[in-house]
């Protein structure tokens, strides 16, 4: 394919062509894409004929996914990616083609820590570059090989591999991926805290049901030694105590996990916002 021209006759960049291909794969039509492009690329946006030509080529070469050719494990991973794509596109895209599955599977194999949504984004980028006639994929390959989204160390290694022609789109995408991961971790922590709070409320309510005296150590009581003659009441109290102890055990386990998550997030934040704070073997105290 010849180099694309923007509306002023100048060559366009890979970011725009990749976006056109992805939006087309996600269910956008030519008019919708053409109207959207100026919000990002202004006068450099491709005109509708250039957009429609790409969409036609893309849709003329689609093959349905042969689901039975994939293993159960591969299918489960693909379905997780599809779930996030359906959510991200608000239902515009609900299935994958065979070539999309092939690329998503390959990307998940070499970069398993990449969030599912971005496994799809990178699969789309490779497919777009191939459709544009590109044969050199060193920028995408280097990014996935370095895994700079995982922590500060691979991030620095990735930066050191780059020359002055650093792919700006991938640099922006890295920021987006790390923000996405941080938000997911924050959501997980909040969900754990909500669950812990709910356990605490249930525990307090059960404690009030058993005794009106909050200082009474009813957990330590041996109900077999009490003067209660009603067997049903004793059995009920015993069940309540056993349940409350189990809930307290669960709550402690949840709290320990939350503390680990919080510590990991604090370490990540320290690496992210204090890049100059690490140990040096320079002989100084």
Task: Tell me what you see in this structure.
The longest helix is centred in the middle third of the chain and has 43 residues, at 168-210. By secondary structure, the chain is mainly alpha-helical. The chain folds into three domains: 1-61, no CATH class; 64-135, no CATH class; 176-273. The chain has eleven helices and no strands.
Main β-sheet, in a few words?
Answer: none
| Uncertain stretches of 5 or more adjacent residues | 280-285
* Total domain count: 3
Order of helices and strands, N to C?
Answer: HHHHHHHHHHH
Shape field: elongated
Rounded to the nearest angstrom, the distance between the terminal CA atoms is 61 Å
Rounded radius of gyration (Å) = 28 Å
- Specify the number of helices: 11
The oligomeric status of these chains comes to single chain
Residues in helix, %: 55-70%
| Helical/strand content category | mainly alpha
Strand content: under 5%
Number of strands: 0
What would the keywords be for this entry?
285 residues, mainly alpha, 3 domains, 66% helix, 0% strand, disordered C terminus
Can you summarize this structure?
With 285 residues, this protein is an all-alpha fold. Helix content is 66%, strand content 0%.
């Amino acid at each position: 394919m010849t180099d694309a021209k923007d509306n002023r006759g100048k060559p366009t960049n890979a970011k725009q062509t990749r976006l056109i291909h992805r939006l087309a794969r996600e269910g956008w039509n030519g008019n919708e894409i053409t109207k959207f492009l100026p919000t990002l690329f202004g006068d450099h946006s491709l005109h509708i004929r250039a957009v429609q030509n790409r969409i036609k080529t893309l849709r003329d070469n689609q093959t349905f996914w042969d689901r039975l050719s994939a293993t159960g494990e591969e299918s489960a991973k693909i379905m997780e990616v599809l779930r996030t794509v359906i959510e991200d596109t608000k239902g515009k895209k609900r299935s994958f083609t065979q070539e999309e599955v092939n690329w998503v599977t390959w990307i998940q194999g070499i970069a398993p820590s990449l969030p599912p949504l971005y496994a799809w984004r990178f699969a789309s980028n490779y497919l777009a570059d191939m459709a544009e006639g590109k044969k050199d994929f060193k920028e995408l390959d280097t990014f996935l090989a370095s895994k700079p989204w995982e922590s500060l160390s691979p991030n620095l290694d990735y930066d050191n591999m780059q020359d002055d022609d650093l792919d700006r789109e991938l640099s922006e995408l890295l920021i987006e991926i790390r923000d996405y991961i941080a938000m997911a971790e924050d959501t997980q922590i909040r969900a754990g805290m909500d669950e812990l709070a709910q356990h605490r409320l249930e525990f307090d309510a059960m404690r009030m049901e058993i005794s009106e005296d909050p200082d009474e150590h009813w957990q330590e009581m041996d109900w077999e030694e009490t003067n209660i003659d009603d067997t049903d009441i004793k059995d009920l109290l015993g069940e309540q105590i056993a349940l409350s102890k189990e809930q307290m055990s669960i709550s402690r386990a949840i709290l320990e996990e939350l503390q680990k998550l919080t510590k990991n997030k604090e370490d990540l934040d320290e690496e992210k916002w204090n890049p100059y704070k690490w140990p040096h073997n320079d002989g100084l105290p």
